[in-house]
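In the laboratory, one determines a bound structure by crystallizing the protein with its ligand and collecting diffraction data. In a computational setting the workflow is compressed into a single prediction: the sequence and the ligand go in, and a structural description comes out. We illustrate the idea with pyridoxal-5'-phosphate.
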Amino acid sequence: MRLSQFGETLSAGSSIVSLMEDLGSALRENPEMLFLGGGNPARIPAVETALSGALHNALADPEKAWQMLGVYQSPAGDTQLRQELADCLKSRYQWPVSAANIAFANGSQSAFFVLFNLFAGAMSDGSARHIQLPLVPEYLGYSELGLGSNFYRASRPDIELIGDHSFKYHVDFSRFAIDADSAAVCVSRPTNPTGNMITDTELAGLDERARVADIPLIIDGAYGLPFPGIVFTEACAHWNENTILVLSLSKLGLPGVRTSVVIADEPVIRAFAQANTVLSLAAGNVGPAIARELLASEQLLQLGREQVTPFYRERCQQTLAILQAALGHLPMRVHRPEGAIFLWLWFEGLPISSAELYQRLKARGVLIIAGEHFFPGLQEPWQHQYECVRISYAQPGHVVEQAAKILSQEVARAYAQG
Ligand SMILES: Cc1ncc(COP(=O)(O)O)c(C=O)c1O
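The predicted complex, in structure-token form:
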């Protein structure tokens, strides 16, 4: 097989592929694996009931069922649903949006592929532009999305130490620099892997700098506001015509339907919908049909607020307590959990890399994610990147408890060998 550069780039073993392979094989082949690795949302019975009820309603009406299963949608998705969503956002947040500011896509991963490559990479004047990440760690799924080399530039964050066991990353505005080749700024909020909610003030600073540079600010709201809203701090949802907000139904409990929503200025939506049509012909209809039912019953935002977020907040507190009991005697700090479904653990001075720790844990039946994959675009060496791991708290407490014991043993062994 002789592959093109595109083929080589996308089929080479990437972090996201090995993560998804581990995720798949761990769940299918080894049900005994203590699985703290993936980004799969938890099962929340009340949410499952609401989602299957919405699907049931969509199927019960033959006209709706046909629209859902038997029709190619227009490039940006069903206009009426886009208008209904715009009305909801307008009344809830006073955002000046209409159907023309909204496009549906097949999951946010593929939406980012389109968006990033719409703005960054080879330009027609021969120059090359990059996506600017204002702080890393950042979502590892971005890493191989760019059809070009040096596709990302990232800055190290400021680290605020909080007490003896916690810390928080902040955008270091003295390091973060937009230059003539920056195509867009992108940040996930809350951030995968850290659960960091960059503050409203930080976001305003990024927004202002992006506007001055005349480039868009992309906010990855896969876990964030307005839905699914897995946010534990006081923070505002943000949108203006220079913002591209990408939302997803996945973490609300629907990763299987592959539906995301892009909210942006009209020219961006037009370009996005055209590119997406070339790639996918049309966005799938099942997720949007469920979203429509949820919107009609006012559950789209409510489910996140009343079911999903309280569930993860409680899981998060439980997991913190379990970790503290099992690893509190070790030099461990946990990033202040402000949202999403992960905890980010920092073992300062860890004598082995996070990838080695991952291997040792996997051999003992525990899956976590090594931290070093979450630093796309960071060009300077930084030991910190090898000292962190991500764990998910979507799993039940007894799984976390067993895993924490083994994690504690392996981390203690690593320090002792150091
Ligand atoms: C921060 C972030 N963005 C985007 C995605 C992609 O999600 P999806 O393609 O399911 O919408 C994920 C998935 O875990 C994520 O964590």
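The pocket of pyridoxal-5'-phosphate is lined by residues 39, 107-109, 139, 141, 188, 192, 220, 222, 248, 250, 255, 260 (CB under 6 Å). Keep in mind that any predicted model is a hypothesis to be tested, not a measurement.
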